[in-house]
Each structure stands twice: as C-alpha cells, then as structure tokens.
Fold this sequence. Notes:
Elements: E1 4-7, H1 25-33, E2 37-41, H2 47-61, E3 70-77, H3 111-122, E4 130-137, E5 139-141, H4 149-157, E6 163-166, E7 175-177, H5 178-191, E8 197-200, H6 208-219, E9 224-227, H7 240-247, H8 255-260, H9 275-286, E10 291-296, H10 303-314, E11 317-320, H11 321-336, E12 347-348, H12 358-374, H13 381-392, H14 395-399, E13 401-405, H15 411-418, E14 444-449, H16 452-460, H17 464-467, H18 474-487, H19 494-500, E15 506-509, H20 510-513, H21 519-529, H22 539-626, H23 631-641
Parallel strand pairs: 1-2, 2-3, 3-4, 4-8, 5-7, 6-9, 10-13, 10-14, 11-13, 14-15
Antiparallel strand pairs: 9-12
Helix pairs in contact: 2-3, 4-6, 11-12, 11-13, 13-15, 15-19, 16-18, 22-23
Amino acid sequence: MKRTSRSSQKKEDEHSSSTPQAISREDLLMHLLECDVIIYNITENPQQVEEAIWAVSALNEEISHFEKRKVFILVSTVMTWARSKPLDPDDSEIPFTEEDYRRRKHHPNFLDHINAEKMVLKFGKKVRKFATYVVAAGLQYGMEGGILHAFFKLAWSGEVPALPVFGDGTNVIPAIHVLDLAGVIQNVIDHVPKFRYLVAVDEAVHTLEDFVKCISKSTGPGKIQKVPKENAFLTKDLTQEDIDHLLVNLRMETLFVKENFNIRWFAQAGFVENINSILKEYKQSRRLLPIKICILGPPAVGKSSIAEVLSKYYKLHHIKLKEVISEAIAKLEAIITPKDVGEGGEEESEEEEEEENVEDAQELLDGIKESAEQDAGRLEDEYIIRFIKEKLKSMPCKNQGYILDGFPKTYDQAKDLFNQEEEEEEEEARGKMFPFDKLIIPEFVCSLDASDEFLKERVMNLPESIVAGTHYSQGQFLRALSNYRDINTEDETVLNYFDELEIHPIHIDVGRLEDAQNRLAIRQLIREIGEPRNYGLTDEEKAEEERRAAEEQLAKEAMEEAERQHKEAAETAEKIARWEEWSKRLEEVKREEKELLEAQSLPLRNYLMTHVMPTLMQGLNECCKIRPDDPVDFLAEYLFKNNPEMQ
Length: 647
C-alpha cells in the first residue's frame, strides 16, 4: 500500500494537503520518510518552492536508509519555458515538447521555479532508490476556476458590459484541466517512466481572447473589450503570477504523455470545447446555483414588499410585470429606430452577432399596440408570456436567479410560460407530468393569503401618497380582489400546476401573523429557501456590514449601560426605602415594647407602694436617727422585724 504526501498551502485546496501547516522540518522529514510518494505543487504558492528544494535535498541525503524506492514529483509550471527561443525562427507556431526541456528559458518572475526543477532532476539519478520527476503544467482550470476565476466572477456578477482582454489577446496560453493534471501525476506514480521531465497540457491552442470570449458568451454579457495590459494590475482578484500566466505566449505539446500514458481525459480538446461541463462544475464548486422564486397571492397581501426584501438578501432579480413589458417595448422601439454609425470605440464584440429583424420587431410592436387599444391598455397573455419568458432566460436570471412577482395568475398562463418550446401533444393530459423548461421553472413557490377583511383594512390604512396612481383605489382594488378569488376557486389554479410538478407551494397566511412589515413571513421564507448562493459580500458590503455591526454594538452597549444605571438607581432607591421602612418599624417596636413593660410593671409597683415602701421609709427614718455603724445590716434587720406579713 502506497502512502502519499502532498504539499500545498493554497486555502482553496487545503483538502488536498496531508502535510500539517505548522510543523518543524524534523517532523516533516520524518513524515516524508514514511511515504512512498511525495508530491510538491509549487504552482499555487511561491513559498512552497523553498520547502520543495529542502525536501528533495533532505530525502536525497537519506537514500541509504530507504527500504524501498520513493517517488518525488514536483508539479511546476510552463512559465519556466516562457522566454524560450522558437525552435524555428521562421515558424513560431512549432510547439515545444518534453524533449526540448534543456532549451527552456524561464520568465524573470519564475527563477525560483526553474531552480527547483533543476534541483529535483539532479537528485533523481538513482532511480532504483529515489525517482524524481518534474511535471510542467499549463494554466490550470476547472473545479473552482483557478486563475480564470476572476473572469468567471466578473461575468457571473454582470457588473460590466464586456469582459476585459489584456493586450491584443492573441497570445497562446498552454492550459490543462486539474483532473487531467491529476491523471498525468497518477500515471507517473503507476508507471515510474524513464523520462523524468513531463509537460502536462491539453491539445487546444487557445489565446487569451479565446478564453475570455468563451467565458463571456457562456455566463456573461457576451462581449469582450480589449484594454491595455497594465489594466490587469487593477484587477484585485489577480496576483502578479496570475497576470504572468495570462500574458504568456507559448505553444506546447505533450507527446510523451499521449504516447505512453493511459489517461481518461476530462477536457483533452481544451477549455472552449468543454466549457459547458467546466462551467457546471465551477458553479457547483462555488455554490453559485441560481435561486428561482415565484411569489403569488391576492392584491395588497405584500407580494412586492416581501419580494423586494428577498431580492436584496439573496441578490436576485426582482421581476415585475409592468417593468418587463416596458423594457421589452423600449427594446423593440430601439431596434426600429435608425442607429447612427458609431465612432468605432475600443469595445470588441463579435461582428457576426445576429442582427435584429427590423420588420419582425415592427410587426410585433404593432401587434402590441393593437392589443392594448382593444383591451383598454391591457396586453394579451401571448405577449406578456413572451416577454416574461425572455426575461427568465436572460443571462442575469440564469446566473443569479429571480423572484417572479405576482405572475403567472392562472393555470394556463403557468403552463404556457414554463412549458418547453416544443408543442405538447394534445393527448397529453393535464393531470400527468408534462414537459417543462427546467432552466426557468421556479424552485420555490410562495403562496401568500389573507382574509378579504384584512386586505380591505390594510388598503384603507394606506397613505394617500402610496395609493395614488396604483390599483389600490377602492373600486380597482375590489375588482382585482374579486377577480383573484374567482380565478382561484376553479378546479385548476396556478398552484395546482406547481403541485402537479411536485413543486409544492409554501403557504403563508399573512393575516394570522399580525405583522404589518411582514417580517415574520420573510423570516419563514428565508428558513425555507436557505442560505444565499453567491460569492458572498463584496468589500463595500463587508465594510457597510462592519459599520452597521459596530453601530449596533455601540447602541447595545449604550442601552445596556443606561439599563445598568437605571437598575442601580432603582436598587439604591429601594435600599433607602427599605432602610427607612426598617427604621420606622424599629421605632414602633421600641415604643410597643416600652408600653408593654410599663403595663407589665404596674402590679408590682402597686404592691411595692402598698406593702414595702411604708416600712422601708420608716426604716430609713430610724436609720437616720440612730446612725448605726452598718446601715445596710440595720435596715435589713429592721425590715425583717417590722414585716407586716410576719406580724
């Protein structure tokens, strides 16, 4: 059984590292000596180069103690070939192969990488004991995107009208999918070939423009813009090494790998040919799956306000019927309006892009106007569904997702909107599962509801400024509410449609929650939908979040301090009141005790005054007259002799 150590410090690939981050060189060497295969990847972190050189040197010194052969693989980069002179000065399109590795010239920023390659090849001469290999990999793509992540992120977010191409974009970039690179490394481990310098690239000859244009078309605005090379340094997601990779101009071919290895290629034909699968794994790896929500319910139930909050929380596109129709009509009018010849600017886009048919646009616009005139400004479902479907299929909605506000309203509208483009057969029954467009079908359906009395009261309490210009005027609102109730008492409602597709609606009775701001309903929906699926907060949003958190913390601390002071003041006042109450009660107790003692001493006083005091007064008088030597003894003797009871 083989044990393998892989060393890589890039955060995104921590799962591929079995070497602890904080470890002494002695412990690391002991760990490496326990392994049969050691792989060092120096393409992701320049700091790994020095450790890789130390590791291969230290292992080479321990060769005499090896019980069996060890394999050391250095995953390097084709940037060590970046300044190589063409094989044929008259034909620069002849690619380099593994056999030309002695002629390679490195990029100035990759001197440490080529030194590491030379060191690894130097120590691998005793193949029976210690086999060393260098795998020069092209620009790595796939999974979480690698260097191309910056372009994927820019395209997915839809923040720019065109993706930037640095320079003229004609430079050829050797590349390879990370899974194919893993396949090459696995074959090196399995076969231990005699040839010790390998090149790992796919068969494609793609330029920087090819890469960027493919990303833009598949998940972005569909356009590219050529900008000066210096602009690359303004892209915060790109490091100096990333920029060097993107600006390299190098043709390479991997002959040895194709002829001697048995690899299950994932993207042998290259990035462009496999963009769909690459994009799919990128979105899955980054958890960039769109969230598609449909919110339905009667008028004034709070659909738009809840949709607005959710769209900000999840960073989704809030699709409102009126806005979609206005946007579509404006687009048609722009197509029909004659365009001035442009000045030819710097923006580059495909000249072969499909031109809009002016006649078709004019015909559609005429049909819309005619439909609106015949039905008092209302459009037929045919046009509404067409515009909504186009919006749902737009790139921003496919990337981030959407919140569809208050549409569709009926079963037929839902079926026409979400069914596949192909016509269904008539024999397909409605009750059975029928084809639907998985690309645009909502993942979550929320059905809000409330009693008519609750909705009427809510509308009546709305400020006049909000009601003006909306359908919340008394007559319009009552008609809309009545129409909604009529539609949803039929056997086939829009909610039945989603139930048949096993997309079971989330039912929320807004009236029972008794929350005018709909906070409880929003909280319940967030629990049902889950966490956002995007890149997370931007730097500006993080700063705003930190500022808000700091303000909340200060407010919380101020509130706690005020509460503490109030509590202390209340406790002090309570102590004073208790002390005063206790002092008052003590005085009362003393008074009562005095009165009690006086009451209890009255019989004794009367007895003394009647029987003791007369005799005692006589004895004192006699004592004063006689003046005995011992007055006390005399007085005692006198009282004993003259005691009335004794007589």
